[in-house]
């Protein structure tokens, strides 16, 4: 009993700590844009696709926690267990969605923010294709589930198309977004041979949040005595792992591959700051873009 109480408390602490770490990572770019009164040097792609991802994540988390139908179908498919989604997951997802909307508004409505006109306010074809592809794929699954008219009986919940599968399809949108959203920054760092302009603090917070998120899920599954708590919520598990893989690449870029660029900036008092664009050209690239404006 004492061990169970300790693990429950530890899960609670881990959950809210990862929520705090991940939530804090949303602020640097919007604050930077506001302080510069411009979005020059960055692109709308990252916050725009993040809006879709966090909308999907919010909807799926709410369904897992508050929908009796989804919870019943989950229990039928996973041996009577309940989803390992908690209230802090919903809070995190909704908070992330709001912050993404704020950042996107800085690109779509620069005059409302008193921003100077800048490049990067139009999404790329790649991001638009991903955006509408995810929406179309999810709608197809929802229509497939609706057409099947499968009831939430135990046997059907294991083998048939049910509304739980539709919620999984919605949640996978967040996973797809996570798989692609960091790629442009990774390429820019490689091209510039520098991480100047990309906040390492943001990455460290994200990395810590990923470790704690997976740890919380492992504790919850251990207490249930069945690791289907992870297999039954693959998106939450994958989000932490995928994010940490990207984070490790950024950490290696910052502290190993391109550390001398950071040290040079450090002598000027700017190393590790967000004074440069998020999608981070080096100093020469930033000057070129400012001349374009």
UniProtKB/TrEMBL annotation:
Listed GO MF terms: L-cystine transmembrane transporter activity; symporter activity
Biased amino acid composition, Basic and acidic residues: 281-293
Keywords: Lysosome, Membrane, Repeat, Symport, Transmembrane, Transmembrane helix, Transport
Pfam families assigned to the protein according to its UniProt record, in alphabetical order: PQ-loop
Top-level lineage group: Eukaryota
Cleavable signal peptide: none
Alphabetized SMART domains for the sequence: CTNS
TM region positions: 6-27, 48-70, 90-114, 126-146, 166-183, 195-215, 235-257
Membrane-protein topology: Multi-pass membrane protein
Region feature Disordered, mapped onto this chain: 267-293
Entry's family note: Belongs to the cystinosin family.
PANTHER family recorded: CYSTINOSIN (PTHR13131)
Name of protein: PQ loop repeat-domain-containing protein
